[in-house]
Amino acid sequence: MTQADFDFIQSLAYEKTGIVLPERKKHMVYSRLSRRLRHLNLGNFSQYCSHIQRTPDEMINFVNALTTNLTAFFREEHHFKYLESKVIPKWKKNKNRRLRVWSSACSTGEEPYSIAMILEQHFSGVEWDLKVLATDLDTDVLSKASIGSYASDSVTNLPRRYADKYARQTDNGQKVQMRSSVQKMIHFKQLNLLGEWPMKGPFDVIFCRNVLIYFDNETKKKIIARFRKLLSPQGYLFIGHSETLTHISEDFDLIGQTIYRPIGHGDNKLQQTKRSVANL
Ligand SMILES: C[S@@+](CC[C@H](N)C(=O)[O-])C[C@H]1O[C@@H](n2cnc3c(N)ncnc32)[C@H](O)[C@@H]1O
């Protein structure tokens, strides 16, 4: 791969996905795209760069090859504990029995299934309108997510009470299949965080975890400002363990470990007092 090839790939990835590919990721890019070269019987990266310009359909494979999809059930468990111990008890007191959660970079689905299991566990048998929107840029991961079948060792993180109830063993115990009660709560859809968002909201919670790290500050600012508009004033935004909204947005209060709420949500008296003092 020549420097010119890498520069081309780098700027195309940035333009289409917002993903920043620094020089240190050259090796990763090489190995991920080599599979496409082999598949297309191309001899070098310059040929691949020409191919992608001539063949718009290749873009989807290019993007799918470059995304990093690492995820797990109940990954960063503190968010799920917070949902169960702090958020759900509040929701249960609501007169409005409608809840909307968006998993905005859902990868192979473990995140939205974890959310849906919690909602099903706490609200089943009661008349609630519950929906989880699960979106990702990568069409390959979305296909896997919508099937809802996973290797059984991937559910080791799943609390027993959820595994027994919502993950049915198949293939002689080698796989598990998510039960339809949780599956039907989730709506999987392809969506580029850089592109059009057809949803109107408002969402009660937005999960945007472990994807902001791939973007530069300008892209992060735009996405977070759009989240603010779609999030209910009483809502929650969960981001990944190595991500922060410091220097990205002043529209949110940090209320827990990588947990944010829109300013003015009314629950955080301490933050509000601090702001009033700062404004004196
Ligand atoms: C590391 S995974 C995170 C999965 C999950 N949120 C978690 O924390 O376990 C990052 C996901 O972001 C997706 N992604 C990358 N760029 C994106 C974009 N521009 N729009 C939507 N999704 C994107 C990737 O396809 C990938 O599945």
Automatic annotation (TrEMBL):
GO terms for molecular function: protein-glutamate O-methyltransferase activity. It comes from the Bacteria. The keyword Transferase applies. Keywords: Methyltransferase, S-adenosyl-L-methionine, Transferase. Residues 1-265 form the CheR-type methyltransferase domain. S-adenosyl-L-methionine binds at N69, T71, R75, E111, D136, N192, L193, R209, N210. GO terms for biological process: methylation. It is an enzyme of class 2 (transferase). Its EC number is 2.1.1.80. It catalyses: L-glutamyl-[protein] + S-adenosyl-L-methionine = [protein]-L-glutamate 5-O-methyl ester + S-adenosyl-L-homocysteine. InterPro entries: Bact_Chemotaxis_MeTrfase, Chemotaxis_MeTrfase_CheR, CheR_C, CheR_MeTrfase, CheR_N, CheR_N_sf, SAM-dependent_MTases_sf. Methylation of the membrane-bound methyl-accepting chemotaxis proteins (MCP) to form gamma-glutamyl methyl ester residues in MCP. PANTHER family: CHEMOTAXIS PROTEIN METHYLTRANSFERASE (PTHR24422:SF19). This is Chemotaxis protein methyltransferase. It comes from Shewanella sediminis (strain HAW-EB3).
